Every structure is written in structure tokens, then in C-alpha cells.
């Protein structure tokens, strides 16, 4: 009789496990096709059954991420959405010791940092960025934003090191060229600014901003030559 | 042809022992699935199928019961009931009364066959089996004639002269062979001993009957009464010209009966001799039976001369085929289900989202604005930056 009960419990457990997996699968399919609300519903349902279910937790975090990123395109406020996403990733990090979630978790932190800054331009987002970079040292978006903040704080050399690091790792990262050139431009070193921007323009001839600022610096240099300042 | 017609007893074989190899045919003892034992004669050349068909219709305890015959895998074969007995080939000599009684049984059997229009054509010691007579309460033996349907003269030492000339077997040729067979049984060796076909043909044609009696006498085993009683038998069997032999099997039987009466010493004496003979025969039969049983039980028994497809094996094959088919089908279905409904896992989705987010064309890059006061008047940096991705005031 005892073994019958054991078998029954085992059967029930297996059925429940199968149901949770089915919810996760459904949520995943919904997520991949852009049906984020349904994805959130299915992952949440799975988590109701098994709060520690790693895939359900990751799926829910990704679904929140997708919703927030979609809203990002609309240029509307995304702070709450990213806050929710990061919270979910934080919980996920407690049930997932693998490194596989780090990329998206790092991105979420970057987005939250940016959304925080958009909400309050005086907010200190450095800890978010540090966390993001700690999770993924190749998250150039976080590194780039950190460089801007450092530059704004007057830590120009530190900022430049970050931009140079980014360009060494990813020579197609246009924003790093722009920001690095700006650090020189702001100091009146038009020649160095032109060097950086023209280098970026050469690497990314289609980039509208680099093209423009290369032309600006070039014209400035010409004007300086004509005026006798150079 | 219906399924039942196609079915062969050979398909039911579960065990096999080779009894003899070489010559006109290989002989096997087969055991069927339900334990029945049959003898398979696996011929190297053809036999007279029409004759065998006629023989198979004769119901006589002196004729083997043919269960099946035909051609399988280009080999003619006969399948008949296994006879628990001893081939007369393996008996060295036998008492005159026993030999005469046995020969009378053969004559009776051949007479029945003759009525059915068939003659044996290959009467020789190897084709006569001595078995126990089971129907009688008294101990007795029964001769059984096997291997009908021979094509050709048969065993040369026993063949009638006309058989060497290619004539078909008939009553007269069988009578000649019976005479030769009787001599062999009595003396333990063939009357004619030659090396080849021509020598046998010549020797069998010029048999001197006085020499036959002389040989019997010289063997020292036969009394003058026995020798004289047998002389009419030789005279009516071992003649070159068929017409000089007994007119028919009935006449031969009468001669044998007379000889038996003279030699056998009456019914009681004959019954006693038979009992004694059967007593000698019995252990040999039992020994052979045990030998065959052991051989059949041996898992490494002889290989069959044909491809076996017994019901058990066929059933197993069918079972394995069905199971294999079902297994393959299940595997294919499972594969289709897995492949057809496979969804990438959540990690794959995470990778996809990450790649999409990290796309350098995405609007994630933050750019600072160069100071306005250092920009030439013709350029409005702020206006330009307003078109750039946020944030613009880092």
C-alpha cells in the first residue's frame, strides 16, 4: 500500500513537472514570435507551480526585457519596465549560477541606467554600469556610457582609456569614435578631434554623425590655417 | 497454389541428424516441432516421382509411409516416417528360418505393390528395415521396404541382368533381387562381388546355381537339409532369363513357404526362433533410438541441407520483424515529433534577444555633444544632436 502511494505521488510529481515544462515551452514559443503578454502569462503560470524553475524564471525576465526594449523604440519612458526586468534578473541570478544569463542581465542594467538618467539627469548610475560591466566586460554600451559619465565628471583621461579600449575591441563602434573625438574637441584640440573622427569616418564611411563631425573639424582646421591660428 | 499446399513438413523441422552421406542421396533424421521423427532422403539426382506417388497411396506395414516428396532447392527429396528398426545391411547373418520369413514378408509387400502397379527395382539389404511388429501380442518382427522409385538398375550386386540393359524394374527383376538378398542375409556377403558396372552385369548374368549351394555348404553354417530346401528358391530367382524365374511373387512365396516348413520345424519352432531373433534385435533398435535421441538433443546437431523456416523460427522472425518494424516506426514518429515540434529552449531565445540588442545598428549608442561655442556658427551642434540617440547631455 505504501509503495502504491509512493508511485501515486511520483506520478503526480511527474505530471506536474510535465505541465510546468509545457507552460515554459508555450511561453518560449510566444516570446520568440513576439507575443510577449502571453509569454509572460505562461512563464508566470509555470513559476506559480515551481517558483524555482530556472527556465521559467529566465523566460519571464526575457519577456520583460523584450517588452521594455520594444517600448524603448517608441522613445517613451521605460524606467519601470527596466526596473521590473532587472528585478527579475536579480531573482534569476539566485537560481542560476551559470554564466548564460549574464549578457542579457548586463544589458538590462545598461538600459536601466540609461532610463534612470533619462528620468533624472543627475542620478548616479555608476553602480548600475559597474554591475553591468562586471557581468559582461564586453558590454561596450555600458563601457561607452561610463566613459561619457567619467568625461562629464572631468575624468577625461579615464574616459579616453575606456573609449580606446572599446575601439580596440570593436573598431565598428561608431559612438566611441564620436565620444573620444569630443573629449579632444572640448579641450580645443581640433587637430586630435579631427584625427579621431576621420579615423572613425574611414572605418565607418556610412555613419552620418562621424561624417558630419569629420567635416566640421576639417573646416575648423582650414579656418584656423586661414586665420593664422594654426 | 494455396498456402496449405505450399506448406511443407520440412518447414516444421526443429532438429536434424545426418544418418548417411554420399551416394545417390544423403539421409537425415528430422525432428519436427511437435516431436515427430521423419526420415529425409535428400537425392543428388532424380527419382521416379510417379512411382513414388503410387507407393505413397499403398497402406501396408511392409512399406514405408511416404509423407512428402518433391523438389526443394533443386534437390529431389522424399520424406517418410522414421522407422524404429535396424537396416538389414547392418546385420551380418541371420538364421535361415528368419531370412525366409523376412523374405516372405517382402514378397507379400511387393505383391501388394504389384497390385498397385509398382515394383521396387532396388531391393538390397540397405533398403530393408527390420522393426518390431507392434500389432501382435507375440514378439515378432516386421520388414519394411524403403527407398522406392529408383532410377537406374539400383544396387548392382542385387540387380537382375535385364536391369543392366536399361529395362525398367518389374516383378521378375524384383524376384531376382530377392534371391540375391536372401543369399546375402544367409551368408553375410554378396553373392556377386565385382568392381564395376560391366563386371556386375556379366557376373549377375552367369550365376551358377550349383556354386550357390556349394558356397552355402562351404560356409559350414548350413545343414544339407537347409541347402537342399533352398535350392528351389535359387532356381526360381537367380536366373538370367526372367521367364525362367518364378512366374510371379505368389509362386515365389509358395516356394519360400515350402522351404520354411522344411527348415523352420513347424510353427512353434519358428515362433521360438523369431522370438529369439527379436530378442537379439531389440537391444540394437533401442541403442539406435537412444543414439538418435541424444544426437537430436545436441544443440550442435547436423545442419539441414535446406533453408529452414520452421514455424517457430518463422514465428520468431515474424515477431522480430513486427517488433523491429514497430520500433523503427516509433523511432521515426518520435524523431518527427521531436524535430517537427522542437522549439529552441529559453537559452536559445536569450541568445537571440542578446544578439538583437547588441546589434551595432541599434539605437543604443550614447554620444556626447561637442561644445557649442567651439563649433563654427554655420553648424548647430545641438540641432544635430537632437537627431542622435539619447542621452545627449551626458
How are the strands ordered across the major sheet of chain B? 1-2-3-5-4
Output the radius of gyration of chain B: 43 Å
Report the uncertain regions of chain B.
1-5, 372-394
Question: What is the number of E strands of chain B?
Answer: 8
Largest interface: A-B, 54 and 33 residues
Kindly state the mean pLDDT of chain B as a whole number? 81
> What's the shape of chain B?
elongated
Indicate the radius of gyration of chain A in whole angstroms.
Answer: 24 Å
Give the end-to-end Cα distance of chain B, rounded to a whole number of Å: 97 Å
Strand and helix order of chain B: HEEEHEEEHEEHHHHHHHHHH
Instruction: Please describe the biggest sheet of chain A, giving its number of strands, its sense, and whether it closes into a barrel.
Output: none
Helix content of chain A: over 70%
What can be said about the biggest beta sheet of chain B?
5 strands, antiparallel
Mean pLDDT of chain A: 89
Written overview of the protein:
The complex is a heterodimer of chains A (230) and B (394). Chain A is built from 11 helices and no strands. With 230 residues, chain A is mainly α. The model of chain A has no long low-confidence stretch (mean pLDDT 89). Chain B has 394 residues and is of the alpha+beta class. In chain B, 35% of the residues are buried. Chains A and B meet through helix 1, helix 3, helix 5, helix 7 and helix 9 of A and helix 12 of B.
Give descriptors for this structure:
heterodimer, A: 230 residues, mainly alpha, 11 helices, B: 394 residues, alpha+beta, five-stranded antiparallel sheet, three-stranded antiparallel sheet, 13 helices, disordered N terminus, disordered C terminus
Quick overview:
With 230 residues, chain A is an all-alpha fold. Chain A has helices at 2-32, 36-49, 54-73, 79-95, 102-119, 126-135, 140-152, 156-169, 174-186, 190-203, 208-227.
Helix and strand arrangement:
The complex is a heterodimer of chains A (230) and B (394).
Chain A: H1 2-32, H2 36-49, H3 54-73, H4 79-95, H5 102-119, H6 126-135, H7 140-152, H8 156-169, H9 174-186, H10 190-203, H11 208-227
Helix pairs in contact in A: 1-2, 1-3, 2-3, 3-4, 4-5, 5-6, 6-7, 7-8, 7-9, 8-9, 9-10, 10-11
Chain B: H1 3-6, E1 13-20, E2 25-32, E3 37-43, H2 49-57, E4 66-72, E5 75-81, E6 85-87, H3 96-115, E7 128-132, E8 141-145, H4 161-164, H5 171-187, H6 197-205, H7 209-219, H8 224-235, H9 249-264, H10 266-297, H11 311-341, H12 346-357, H13 381-386
